[in-house]
Amino acid sequence: MHSGTENGLPRRPLGSGDEWVHLSDGRRFWGRFGAAGLLVRSPEGILLQHRAGYSHFGGTWGLPGGARHEGESAVDAAAREAEEEAGVPGAALRLRFSSRLELEGWSYTTVAATVDRAFEPVIGDAESVELRWVPVAEVETLPLHPGFGEAWPELRELLPVEPTLLVDAANVMGSRPDGWWRDRPGAAERLLEGIGRLAGRGVPAPDLDLPGRRWWPRAVAVLEGAATAAPDAHPVEVIRAEQDGDSAIVAAVGSSPSPDRVTVVTADRELRRSVAELGARVLGPGRLWELIDAARS
After folding, report:
1. Rounded to whole angstroms, how far apart are CA atoms 282 and 293?
2. With 0-12 CB in 10 A as exposed, 13-18 as middle and 19+ as buried, what is 137?
3. Which domain CATH number covers 286?
4. Hey, which of 73, 144, 155, 201 has its CA 20 to 30 A from 294?
5. Model pTM?
6. Where does a domain end: 143, 158, 173?
7. How far apart are CA 251 and CA 272, in angstroms?
């Protein structure tokens, strides 16, 4: 990531985080503010970068990525670096999860995403000698970057995990006395917008009882009664209960291919018991409101 050229390709100008960090044990890592990489999966496999010989651990295979700039989120850094290095189209990405390695004075965040179909990667700078879609089963047969090689077994296990956040909208609205009873459709619309913001920001892994740092689950809200008049709010999926919301929620959990990956947001004691018997996890409305409020910033 130095200015100039290498093998006829332009090197990017130094950014605010483009420098080495030296740890007390003698190791050095790139990125004054840490680094991030993008693990993007298509039906054809994982997009890997064959690193140029001059780079750190040159000759190995790893993820497109690099230094974070000051104030830049890990997601933004991973997407930016992947676009610059490999032509990854950010608009096509569906975020899945992130995992973070924390060392004294430095961190590396892996951001996992999927695309519906493989695109043709394009070498954008001198850091790559080859970009290739590698089938998941063949990744470990390559000489991997040590950091990626160490993280790959856990990352591979997380790839098929598809969590769902299933919200009992009536119960969540009722937990905050903001006058929702005067305009139930309007209150439901505001809640859906908040869930949508949270879906874009991601949910901390502990709230879904999952490993890693953050997840972007499928977000579903169940509306009942007058609240069913609220409009849809992408990316939230809306279920409008024909009868009571509790029955619709239990049915949604029961029809899930992985009930143990469903987190139901409700304070209703009987509903919590019913979904737990099906294998689902539960989260309180108060915590959901905390996450929604934090997503405003």
Report:
1. 19
2. exposed
3. 3.40.50
4. 155
5. 0.88
6. 158
7. 13
